[in-house]
Amino acid sequence: MKVTHNGKELDIRALWMEGSKVRFIDQKILPHRFEFVDASTVEEVARFIEDMTVRGAPSIGAAGAYGMAMAQITDMDLAEAAKRLKRTRPTAFDLFYGVDSMLATASEGRDLVEAAEKYVTQIAEKCRKIGEHGNSLIKDGFTILTHCNAGALATIDYGTALSPIRAAHKGGKKIHVFADETRPRLQGAALTSWELVQEGIPHDIIPDNAAGHFMQRGEIDMVIVGADRIAANGDFANKIGTYEKAVCAKENGVPFYTAAPVSTFDFSLASGMDIPIEERSQDEVRYVGKELICPEKATARNPAFDMTPARYVTGIITEAGIFKPGELKRENLQ
Fold first, then answer.
1. Which residues are catalytic?
2. Mean pLDDT score of the chain, rounded to an integer?
Protein backbone atom coordinates (compact mmCIF):
# COMPACT_ATOMS: atom_id res chain seq x y z
CA MET A 1 0.00 0.00 0.00
CA LYS A 2 1.11 3.56 -0.63
CA VAL A 3 1.31 5.79 2.45
CA THR A 4 2.39 9.41 2.72
CA HIS A 5 4.44 9.80 5.91
CA ASN A 6 6.55 12.81 6.88
CA GLY A 7 6.26 14.15 3.35
CA LYS A 8 7.49 10.90 1.77
CA GLU A 9 5.53 8.30 -0.13
CA LEU A 10 6.13 4.81 1.23
CA ASP A 11 5.16 1.55 -0.43
CA ILE A 12 4.82 -0.88 2.47
CA ARG A 13 2.83 -3.77 3.85
CA ALA A 14 0.81 -3.98 7.05
CA LEU A 15 3.54 -6.17 8.60
CA TRP A 16 6.82 -7.73 7.59
CA MET A 17 9.85 -9.50 9.03
CA GLU A 18 13.17 -7.73 9.60
CA GLY A 19 15.87 -10.12 10.74
CA SER A 20 14.50 -11.92 13.78
CA LYS A 21 11.79 -9.32 14.49
CA VAL A 22 8.33 -8.73 13.05
CA ARG A 23 7.44 -5.11 12.34
CA PHE A 24 3.81 -3.99 12.42
CA ILE A 25 1.95 -0.83 11.52
CA ASP A 26 0.26 -0.02 14.85
CA GLN A 27 -3.39 -0.04 13.80
CA LYS A 28 -4.61 0.95 17.28
CA ILE A 29 -3.43 4.54 16.92
CA LEU A 30 -4.46 5.27 13.33
CA PRO A 31 -5.59 7.63 11.87
CA HIS A 32 -4.06 10.16 14.24
CA ARG A 33 -0.55 8.71 14.37
CA PHE A 34 1.36 6.47 11.97
CA GLU A 35 3.94 4.40 13.83
CA PHE A 36 5.58 0.99 13.77
CA VAL A 37 6.00 -1.48 16.62
CA ASP A 38 8.29 -4.51 16.73
CA ALA A 39 7.76 -7.98 18.17
CA SER A 40 10.85 -9.98 19.06
CA THR A 41 9.17 -12.99 20.72
CA VAL A 42 6.23 -15.26 19.93
CA GLU A 43 4.48 -13.95 23.04
CA GLU A 44 4.74 -10.38 21.74
CA VAL A 45 3.33 -11.43 18.37
CA ALA A 46 0.44 -13.11 20.19
CA ARG A 47 -0.23 -10.03 22.31
CA PHE A 48 -0.21 -7.78 19.23
CA ILE A 49 -2.87 -10.02 17.68
CA GLU A 50 -4.94 -10.02 20.87
CA ASP A 51 -4.85 -6.24 21.43
CA MET A 52 -5.52 -5.56 17.73
CA THR A 53 -2.25 -3.88 16.94
CA VAL A 54 -2.65 -6.13 13.90
CA ARG A 55 -6.13 -7.20 12.75
CA GLY A 56 -7.95 -8.50 9.73
CA ALA A 57 -7.99 -12.19 8.86
CA PRO A 58 -5.18 -12.36 6.25
CA SER A 59 -2.91 -10.04 8.27
CA ILE A 60 -3.51 -12.16 11.38
CA GLY A 61 -2.65 -15.23 9.31
CA ALA A 62 0.59 -13.55 8.24
CA ALA A 63 1.38 -12.68 11.86
CA GLY A 64 0.81 -16.32 12.78
CA ALA A 65 3.17 -17.49 10.02
CA TYR A 66 5.84 -15.00 11.08
CA GLY A 67 5.35 -16.00 14.71
CA MET A 68 6.08 -19.62 13.82
CA ALA A 69 9.21 -18.55 11.93
CA MET A 70 10.30 -16.61 15.01
CA ALA A 71 9.72 -19.71 17.14
CA GLN A 72 12.03 -21.71 14.91
CA ILE A 73 14.72 -19.01 15.05
CA THR A 74 14.60 -18.92 18.86
CA ASP A 75 14.40 -22.71 19.26
CA MET A 76 10.96 -22.48 20.86
CA ASP A 77 8.88 -25.65 20.77
CA LEU A 78 6.79 -25.25 17.61
CA ALA A 79 3.76 -27.05 19.01
CA GLU A 80 3.72 -24.69 22.00
CA ALA A 81 4.14 -21.67 19.73
CA ALA A 82 1.27 -22.85 17.55
CA LYS A 83 -0.95 -23.37 20.58
CA ARG A 84 -0.24 -19.88 21.90
CA LEU A 85 -0.82 -18.18 18.56
CA LYS A 86 -4.08 -20.04 17.92
CA ARG A 87 -5.48 -18.92 21.28
CA THR A 88 -5.38 -15.26 20.27
CA ARG A 89 -8.47 -14.90 18.03
CA PRO A 90 -10.94 -17.76 17.53
CA THR A 91 -12.99 -16.60 14.53
CA ALA A 92 -10.51 -15.73 11.74
CA PHE A 93 -9.60 -18.93 9.89
CA ASP A 94 -6.51 -17.46 8.20
CA LEU A 95 -4.74 -17.55 11.57
CA PHE A 96 -5.17 -21.32 11.82
CA TYR A 97 -4.37 -21.75 8.13
CA GLY A 98 -1.13 -19.78 8.42
CA VAL A 99 0.06 -21.50 11.59
CA ASP A 100 -0.80 -24.98 10.34
CA SER A 101 0.93 -24.39 7.02
CA MET A 102 4.12 -23.51 8.94
CA LEU A 103 3.79 -26.65 11.07
CA ALA A 104 3.49 -28.73 7.90
CA THR A 105 6.55 -27.00 6.43
CA ALA A 106 8.57 -27.58 9.61
CA SER A 107 7.69 -31.28 9.53
CA GLU A 108 9.49 -31.43 6.19
CA GLY A 109 12.63 -29.94 7.78
CA ARG A 110 12.37 -26.68 5.85
CA ASP A 111 13.26 -23.12 6.89
CA LEU A 112 10.24 -21.27 8.25
CA VAL A 113 11.51 -17.75 7.62
CA GLU A 114 11.66 -18.45 3.91
CA ALA A 115 8.32 -20.28 4.03
CA ALA A 116 6.62 -17.46 5.95
CA GLU A 117 7.84 -14.86 3.46
CA LYS A 118 6.52 -16.97 0.60
CA TYR A 119 3.19 -17.41 2.38
CA VAL A 120 2.80 -13.67 2.99
CA THR A 121 3.77 -12.75 -0.58
CA GLN A 122 1.26 -15.25 -1.94
CA ILE A 123 -1.54 -13.81 0.21
CA ALA A 124 -0.76 -10.30 -1.03
CA GLU A 125 -0.80 -11.53 -4.63
CA LYS A 126 -4.13 -13.29 -4.05
CA CYS A 127 -5.58 -10.01 -2.76
CA ARG A 128 -4.35 -8.26 -5.92
CA LYS A 129 -6.18 -10.86 -8.03
CA ILE A 130 -9.33 -10.38 -5.93
CA GLY A 131 -9.17 -6.75 -7.06
CA GLU A 132 -8.94 -7.75 -10.71
CA HIS A 133 -11.95 -10.05 -10.51
CA GLY A 134 -14.03 -7.72 -8.36
CA ASN A 135 -13.34 -4.73 -10.59
CA SER A 136 -15.38 -6.43 -13.33
CA LEU A 137 -18.48 -5.98 -11.14
CA ILE A 138 -18.02 -2.24 -10.64
CA LYS A 139 -19.49 0.14 -13.19
CA ASP A 140 -18.44 3.72 -13.76
CA GLY A 141 -20.39 5.99 -11.42
CA PHE A 142 -21.08 3.31 -8.78
CA THR A 143 -21.43 4.05 -5.09
CA ILE A 144 -20.17 1.11 -3.04
CA LEU A 145 -20.85 0.38 0.62
CA THR A 146 -18.23 -1.40 2.70
CA HIS A 147 -18.23 -2.39 6.35
CA CYS A 148 -15.30 -2.48 8.81
CA ASN A 149 -11.80 -2.44 7.32
CA ALA A 150 -10.94 -5.00 4.66
CA GLY A 151 -8.14 -3.02 3.08
CA ALA A 152 -4.38 -3.39 2.97
CA LEU A 153 -4.09 -2.99 6.74
CA ALA A 154 -6.25 -6.06 7.25
CA THR A 155 -4.81 -8.14 4.44
CA ILE A 156 -1.06 -7.38 4.17
CA ASP A 157 -1.58 -5.42 0.93
CA TYR A 158 -4.30 -4.37 -1.56
CA GLY A 159 -7.22 -5.54 0.58
CA THR A 160 -10.12 -7.90 0.00
CA ALA A 161 -13.23 -5.70 -0.09
CA LEU A 162 -11.11 -2.64 -0.89
CA SER A 163 -9.03 -4.35 -3.58
CA PRO A 164 -11.76 -4.13 -6.30
CA ILE A 165 -12.42 -0.54 -5.24
CA ARG A 166 -8.73 0.30 -5.59
CA ALA A 167 -8.59 -1.41 -8.99
CA ALA A 168 -11.67 0.47 -10.21
CA HIS A 169 -10.28 3.82 -9.05
CA LYS A 170 -6.86 3.11 -10.57
CA GLY A 171 -8.57 2.15 -13.84
CA GLY A 172 -10.23 5.56 -14.05
CA LYS A 173 -13.76 4.65 -13.00
CA LYS A 174 -15.59 7.41 -11.16
CA ILE A 175 -16.70 5.73 -7.96
CA HIS A 176 -17.76 6.77 -4.48
CA VAL A 177 -17.51 4.76 -1.27
CA PHE A 178 -19.73 4.75 1.78
CA ALA A 179 -17.64 3.47 4.70
CA ASP A 180 -19.63 2.31 7.72
CA GLU A 181 -18.09 3.69 10.91
CA THR A 182 -18.18 0.14 12.36
CA ARG A 183 -18.80 0.36 16.08
CA PRO A 184 -17.54 -0.37 18.61
CA ARG A 185 -13.89 -0.06 17.51
CA LEU A 186 -14.67 2.26 14.57
CA GLN A 187 -12.42 0.45 12.08
CA GLY A 188 -14.35 1.90 9.17
CA ALA A 189 -14.06 5.49 10.34
CA ALA A 190 -10.47 5.16 11.55
CA LEU A 191 -8.87 2.68 9.15
CA THR A 192 -10.90 2.34 5.95
CA SER A 193 -11.25 6.09 5.63
CA TRP A 194 -7.51 6.49 6.29
CA GLU A 195 -6.71 4.06 3.48
CA LEU A 196 -9.13 5.76 1.09
CA VAL A 197 -7.58 9.14 1.88
CA GLN A 198 -4.13 7.72 1.08
CA GLU A 199 -5.43 6.53 -2.31
CA GLY A 200 -7.44 9.69 -3.05
CA ILE A 201 -10.70 7.72 -3.38
CA PRO A 202 -13.84 9.83 -2.77
CA HIS A 203 -15.87 8.58 0.17
CA ASP A 204 -18.18 9.39 3.04
CA ILE A 205 -18.15 7.83 6.49
CA ILE A 206 -21.70 6.96 7.51
CA PRO A 207 -23.19 5.83 10.83
CA ASP A 208 -23.66 2.06 10.99
CA ASN A 209 -27.43 2.47 11.18
CA ALA A 210 -27.61 4.68 8.06
CA ALA A 211 -26.81 2.02 5.46
CA GLY A 212 -30.42 0.86 5.14
CA HIS A 213 -31.56 4.44 4.66
CA PHE A 214 -29.20 5.01 1.74
CA MET A 215 -30.09 1.65 0.16
CA GLN A 216 -33.80 2.45 0.39
CA ARG A 217 -33.21 5.74 -1.42
CA GLY A 218 -31.23 4.12 -4.22
CA GLU A 219 -27.91 5.72 -3.28
CA ILE A 220 -25.94 2.46 -2.99
CA ASP A 221 -25.26 0.33 -6.07
CA MET A 222 -23.48 -2.59 -4.43
CA VAL A 223 -22.01 -3.82 -1.14
CA ILE A 224 -18.58 -5.43 -0.79
CA VAL A 225 -17.36 -6.66 2.60
CA GLY A 226 -14.54 -8.89 3.79
CA ALA A 227 -14.79 -12.22 5.59
CA ASP A 228 -13.04 -13.82 8.54
CA ARG A 229 -14.21 -17.39 7.92
CA ILE A 230 -16.36 -18.91 5.16
CA ALA A 231 -18.11 -22.25 5.70
CA ALA A 232 -18.54 -24.90 3.02
CA ASN A 233 -22.09 -23.74 2.18
CA GLY A 234 -21.11 -20.08 1.70
CA ASP A 235 -22.25 -18.78 5.10
CA PHE A 236 -19.57 -16.45 6.42
CA ALA A 237 -18.47 -14.58 9.52
CA ASN A 238 -17.43 -10.97 9.32
CA LYS A 239 -17.37 -7.92 11.57
CA ILE A 240 -20.50 -7.48 13.68
CA GLY A 241 -23.15 -5.60 11.71
CA THR A 242 -22.45 -7.35 8.39
CA TYR A 243 -25.55 -9.55 8.69
CA GLU A 244 -27.79 -6.49 9.03
CA LYS A 245 -26.26 -4.95 5.89
CA ALA A 246 -26.89 -8.17 3.96
CA VAL A 247 -30.55 -8.28 5.01
CA CYS A 248 -31.04 -4.63 4.03
CA ALA A 249 -29.31 -5.24 0.70
CA LYS A 250 -31.60 -8.19 -0.08
CA GLU A 251 -34.69 -6.19 0.84
CA ASN A 252 -33.66 -3.33 -1.45
CA GLY A 253 -32.31 -5.35 -4.39
CA VAL A 254 -28.70 -4.27 -3.86
CA PRO A 255 -26.04 -6.84 -4.89
CA PHE A 256 -24.09 -8.05 -1.85
CA TYR A 257 -20.60 -9.54 -2.21
CA THR A 258 -17.97 -10.79 0.17
CA ALA A 259 -14.31 -10.90 -0.85
CA ALA A 260 -11.69 -13.22 0.61
CA PRO A 261 -8.71 -15.37 -0.36
CA VAL A 262 -9.11 -19.15 -0.41
CA SER A 263 -7.24 -19.31 2.92
CA THR A 264 -10.41 -17.93 4.55
CA PHE A 265 -12.52 -20.96 3.55
CA ASP A 266 -13.05 -23.60 6.22
CA PHE A 267 -14.50 -26.63 4.45
CA SER A 268 -14.55 -28.56 7.72
CA LEU A 269 -17.62 -26.51 8.72
CA ALA A 270 -20.91 -27.42 7.03
CA SER A 271 -22.52 -24.09 7.85
CA GLY A 272 -21.83 -20.75 9.43
CA MET A 273 -23.62 -21.75 12.62
CA ASP A 274 -20.50 -23.79 13.44
CA ILE A 275 -18.19 -20.77 13.24
CA PRO A 276 -16.94 -19.73 16.70
CA ILE A 277 -17.85 -16.10 17.39
CA GLU A 278 -15.41 -14.13 19.52
CA GLU A 279 -16.90 -11.95 22.24
CA ARG A 280 -14.64 -9.13 23.36
CA SER A 281 -14.51 -6.86 26.41
CA GLN A 282 -17.71 -4.99 27.26
CA ASP A 283 -15.62 -1.86 27.76
CA GLU A 284 -15.15 -1.57 24.00
CA VAL A 285 -18.88 -0.79 23.92
CA ARG A 286 -19.10 1.18 27.16
CA TYR A 287 -16.25 3.52 26.25
CA VAL A 288 -15.25 5.51 23.19
CA GLY A 289 -11.55 5.97 23.70
CA LYS A 290 -11.27 6.83 27.40
CA GLU A 291 -14.73 8.38 27.61
CA LEU A 292 -17.47 6.41 29.38
CA ILE A 293 -20.64 6.85 27.28
CA CYS A 294 -23.16 5.01 29.48
CA PRO A 295 -24.13 4.82 33.15
CA GLU A 296 -21.24 3.46 35.16
CA LYS A 297 -23.25 0.45 36.35
CA ALA A 298 -24.50 -0.48 32.89
CA THR A 299 -23.22 -3.71 31.36
CA ALA A 300 -22.78 -4.52 27.67
CA ARG A 301 -22.43 -7.42 25.24
CA ASN A 302 -19.76 -7.23 22.57
CA PRO A 303 -19.73 -9.96 19.91
CA ALA A 304 -16.92 -9.07 17.51
CA PHE A 305 -18.45 -10.89 14.52
CA ASP A 306 -21.75 -12.13 13.19
CA MET A 307 -22.69 -14.78 10.64
CA THR A 308 -24.30 -13.92 7.31
CA PRO A 309 -26.25 -16.81 5.72
CA ALA A 310 -25.38 -17.70 2.13
CA ARG A 311 -28.91 -16.88 0.93
CA TYR A 312 -28.07 -13.18 1.24
CA VAL A 313 -24.82 -13.43 -0.73
CA THR A 314 -24.82 -12.51 -4.43
CA GLY A 315 -21.29 -13.78 -4.91
CA ILE A 316 -17.94 -14.48 -3.26
CA ILE A 317 -14.93 -12.77 -4.85
CA THR A 318 -11.74 -14.84 -4.61
CA GLU A 319 -8.36 -14.93 -6.34
CA ALA A 320 -9.75 -17.85 -8.40
CA GLY A 321 -12.79 -15.92 -9.62
CA ILE A 322 -16.30 -15.00 -8.47
CA PHE A 323 -18.54 -17.79 -7.22
CA LYS A 324 -22.10 -18.13 -6.05
CA PRO A 325 -22.33 -19.85 -2.65
CA GLY A 326 -23.71 -23.03 -4.28
CA GLU A 327 -20.65 -23.28 -6.53
CA LEU A 328 -18.14 -23.60 -3.69
CA LYS A 329 -16.00 -26.68 -4.13
CA ARG A 330 -12.34 -27.21 -3.31
CA GLU A 331 -11.50 -27.96 -6.92
CA ASN A 332 -13.03 -24.68 -8.11
CA LEU A 333 -10.87 -22.67 -5.73
CA GLN A 334 -7.45 -24.00 -6.74
1. 228
2. 95
